[in-house]
Amino acid sequence: MNTSSTRRPMSPAMKMAELLDTDFSLLGVATRLGLHFGFGEATVADVCQHAGIDPETFLLICRVYAFDGYRPTQEALAAANLKDILQYLHQSHAYYTEVVVPQMASALERMIKPCEEKQQRIIWKFFADYKEELAKHFAYEEGQVFPYVEAVLNKRKGAQFTIGEYEENHSNVEEKLEDLKNLVMKYIPAACNQQEAYKVLFYIYNLENDLGKHTFIEDDILVPMVGRMENHE
Amino acid sequence: MSKRILIVVPSAIAAKGLEQVFNDLGEFEVCAILRDLSGQELRSMAPDVVVVDPSIFDYASRSSVKARVAEYSDAAVIAFTISPLDEEQQRQYDAVIGLMDTPPAIIKKVRAALEDRTETPRAEGEELSQREKEILICVAKGMLNKEIADLYNISIYTVITHRKNITRKTGIKTVAGLTVYALLNNLIDMNSVE
To answer: What is the predicted pLDDT for the residue at A37?
Structure first.
């Protein structure tokens, strides 16, 4: 890792490759926003403009991922591009559903394979229920919340809904994931495949961290931005 | 919810006085006044604080009061004394209150002891107690707190305290997760879960 760059504040003038090198969780941010690797010496501003993404909004999301406890300023929120935020959240959902969860499922399946059939069923059912709950949570956001945000964005009158209700509805799918983590860490049968258990835990920790940032972007960036637009209507 | 205080002080006058001090505020609730301390009572009352006069124990066992209480309850243990305790004995308790303390001083000490207790949860990695296992089984079977309280003849608050402790020890929060725990540990049978 290039240590000199970690100290420098993130800016549009920075080289994209250097920015991503400061924290590897930013790789996911770049990918989900459709930025293509092979950046050469291009700056953050160059790459973003080429991909049709606002550089400041990209950096806003990067800061959420790279700095724990980061809170954007009012100015940063006012300057951010809602369409890009929305695209990011949407792509994250797709990534969780299409990549992370299937990875976790196949590792978990291999993990429990050496166990008694009864134990396999117990653990698998818990995971399957979690998976379903997560899908339901995403479906609600994709089906209710995001279309509403788009309507606000296009200055159309949205459905009978305000962004404040979304905050109330924002269910907590984190508890079950934490339970799964503790069950695997502490209570799985000794017969379980250890290499696969390691993978399951690795995926859980990654997802937990990513979902935490994702929820922050929803609650502390998307919601206030839309709230502001509602008030200016 | 007010904090439940169990007073174990043989002097009726002192006990009454303490009760008055605690009940005046609404922040605390004296759940019982006892002359002696038994494990059974400690467990069923699930107090947050035990105020105990060390003189109810014979001299030899005075050095293990906290450990004896901890066996049955995770309450903060506060000594109430007429004569001063030596340093070794003082260290046994989360706080020491004396006959000459003013009511505000007493309240302050109890609050501080409770705060300490929530900041440093007792020994991590403990096994579930027998009662906790019983309650876990009920939870896994889908029983409500009220139903569990009725079954074991304990208060709903006690059930909630047990559930909190189960979650603290296992790290598992949801009913579905606790059910998996109970099944994997053979505490219940697949057939008893819907």
So the answer is: 96
